[in-house]
Design brief:
666 residues; mainly alpha; Fumarate Reductase Iron-sulfur Protein, Chain B, domain 2; 27 helices
């Protein structure tokens, strides 16, 4: 063993020990979370998810420019691991080479050269985007800029020193490659920079070798203190992310456990380990905030800030909790109020745009709702007007102050029967609160009922036995009230032996289809747009042949589209109408922009910033169509108000897709 090997070992072992120590500390900090969260099911599906999201970059390519940059850097990094491994082993045994791997080594060395150039170009362009043209979503505070610059420059110099090693090594061997080595770029540069009379090849090689080693070890030990910790945490975070059909559903609280003193999460130890891991996995890329409708119109909410605040608070409090220290000044603070303001939490529409866009599968909405639960159930702190909303749900079974006895009045004279009158119905029509009480959406309820009657569907409604689905209360953090509604509804539905349900409300659709299962309510649930498409496809509903030509734009409801992937059914049904043309808004389908009413925002006032529905309506008006079509009662209300804001009520119609189908049916 030579002097070089001794120096390397003296440097390598402490550096790796320090790195492992810091990683183990981070794991300890995650373990301070008290809430249980089992994410070890369906291992095969989770591995598949990692392959698609991590190695296939399925999320990152939603922004093509940034996606391509990251793709080159990521795969370059993967391939560089072989070069780093070879260099590390050479630190113990100087003459070591991976050339024994044969043609595999040829492929690796070729890709090192190819991706080395691509990574260098990508890093330079990334620095240009961040520091020259200042891409809005990449704007961060000064410390974040320094951190980003440090990481990008270290990656850049890791590539340069790798090339330096290869170029010098080729020259040292008289420009002859090792067995199976294929470094075309390095070989070309070597012949360009050196000749047979060069005397500094060995010195240059040693310089690049040691510089490479030092930068790699510095990079490795800097990661636990950097926002680029995601290089280590993103893969586990993606592996442990929620899978379908659990994706986008809220986890229930055990409201019957009398020993629970704190509901939801007011501080980091009340979260689950996965929610703290989310904080460590955040890349601060800003995609979540760039997609957030509240942030777009100038409100305080920034999903990125929510997650980074969780990380900051974890860094402050978790080390003390991990050591068993429970009395410090930092304990006088809490995550809510001191790091994250109440108003930020109440501005969330739970539209899931942040979760959809996050490349590392952070679950922002789960954490926001958990903090809302803490405010409502533990602290009893929530906007004053919600008191009436909660009271109305509890007593009238609807968020609005209507008499529950009037829930089925819309059906008078229509021939629609209740399930008590038609117990042998094939499908239950869940009308929902808006469909029962909102004067505008009652027309949609009647339109869809008429379509089913035309198609000779044997359906019924619950009538006055139907209660609020619980969606509004649940998203607003009142889990107790939500579960009360859910369990009472399930008791009624199961009592009648209901198997199939159709509803025109995406919020009811999502709750009934995905979240009622948590409490024993297992049903086959359709949104009316899906049901109408089926009726059109099988010929149960016939459309007219002599329709007027009309251009419409379709707005995707978040709880129908992003939550449940129903994008095509409304469009396919509308496109069957001859003469009807759909003009898409600039943000549609999975990138659609929220109307502003979800997450209970329908019942909250705008305290700051602009109005989300106005921004969405502006986009709709830019299509220059005469009609805005949707498939959600909340969206219909918000878009109608938006059209009024622009004083376009006489020129622009707002309709539900079922109304258009009925108007154009025989």
């Amino acid at each position: 063993m030579g002097f070089k090997n001794i120096v390397f070992i003296t440097l390598f072992i402490p550096a790796m020990g320090f790195f492992i120590r810091n990683c183990s500390k981070l794991i300890k900090y995650i373990k301070v979370a008290k809430k249980k969260d089992d994410r070890f099911d369906e291992i095969g599906q989770r591995v598949k998810h990692v392959i698609i999201v991590v190695f296939g970059h399925s999320k990152l390519f939603r922004d093509p420019k940034a996606g391509i940059l990251h793709f080159f850097i990521f795969w370059g990094f993967i391939l560089f691991l072989f070069a780093v491994l070879e260099t590390f082993i050479q630190g113990f045994y100087s003459s070591f080479s991976l050339s024994f791997a044969g043609w595999f080594y040829s492929a690796v060395t070729l890709m090192e050269d190819v991706f080395g150039i691509l990574v260098i170009l990508s890093i330079l362009y990334a620095l240009y985007r961040r520091f020259i043209i200042h891409v809005p979503r990449l704007k961060v505070e000064k410390s974040g800029k320094v951190d980003a610059a440090a990481i990008l420059l270290m990656i850049l110099f890791i590539c340069i020193t790798m090339f330096g090693q290869n170029i010098s090594s080729i020259a040292m061997r008289g420009f002859s490659p090792k067995p199976y080595e294929f470094h075309p770029v390095s070989a070309f540069l070597s012949s360009l920079l050196y000749n047979s009379n060069s005397f500094n090849m060995r010195q240059n090689y040693e310089f690049f070798w040691w510089t490479h080693i030092i930068i790699v070890l510095t990079f490795l030990n800097y990661l636990p203190y950097s926002k680029h910790l995601h290089i280590l945490t993103s893969v586990p975070n993606i592996f442990f992310s929620n899978l379908n059909p659990v994706r986008n559903t809220l986890k229930p609280l055990n409201m019957e456990d009398e020993s629970i003193e704190v509901y939801g999460a007011g501080d980091i130890d009340q979260f689950s380990w996965k929610q703290l891991l989310d904080g460590y996995a955040c890349t601060e890329c800003g995609r979540c905030t760039a997609a957030c409708p509240a942030a777009e119109v100038g409100k305080s909410l920034s999903p990125r800030k929510i997650i980074t605040d969780i990380r900051r608070r974890t860094a402050e409090k978790a080390p003390l909790l991990a050591k068993g220290i429970f009395k410090r000044n930092s304990f006088e603070k809490t995550l809510i109020h001191d790091y994250i303001s109440d108003i930020e939490l109440w501005e969330c529409t739970t539209c899931m745009a942040c979760v959809q866009e996050c490349p590392v599968m952070i679950e922002h909405v789960d954490s926001i709702v958990d903090m809302r639960r803490n405010l409502v159930l533990t602290e009893s702190q929530f906007p004053s007007n919600l008191k009436n909303v909660f009271k109305s749900i509890e007593t009238n079974y609807t968020p609005w102050p209507f008499n529950s006895a009037d829930r089925a009045k819309w059906a008078e004279g229509t021939g629609v029967k209740t399930i008590a009158e038609n117990a042998n119905c094939d499908i239950l029509f869940w009308v929902g609160c808006a469909g029962s009480f909102d004067n505008r959406f009652k027309k949609v309820t009647k339109a869809f009922a008429s379509i089913m009657q035309k198609a000779n569907i044997n359906f019924a409604i619950l009538g006055n036995e139907e209660k609020c689905s619980g969606d509004t209360a649940r998203r607003l953090g009142n889990e107790y009230l939500a579960q009360m509604m859910i369990k009472e509804n399930i008791e009624i539905l199961n009592g009648y032996g209901v198997k199939k349900i159709v509803t025109a409300c995406p919020h009811c659709f999502h709750s009934l289809k995905n979240e009622y299962k948590q409490f024993g309510g297992n049903y086959e649930v359709f949104h009316h747009s899906q049901f109408i498409q089926k009726l059109l496809d099988d010929g149960s509903i016939k459309l007219k042949e002599d329709n007027k030509k009309i251009k419409v734009t379709y707005h995707d409801p978040c709880y129908l589209g992003r939550y449940n992937g129903v994008f095509d059914s409304p469009r396919k049904s509308l496109k069957k109408i001859k003469g009807l043309e759909i003009v898409e808004m600039k943000r549609s389908k999975s990138k659609g922009f929220c109307c502003g009413a979800g997450g209970g925002r329908m019942f909250l006032e705008d305290e700051e910033g602009g109005k989300i529905n106005v921004e969405r309506t502006r986009e709709a008006l830019e299509t220059n169509t005469g009609m805005i079509v949707s498939a959600c009662p909340f969206c219909m209300t918000m878009l109608t108000d938006g059209v009024k804001h622009f004083e376009k009520s006489e020129q622009i119609e707002i309709k539900d897709m079922s109304e258009i189908i009925l108007e154009n049916s025989n």
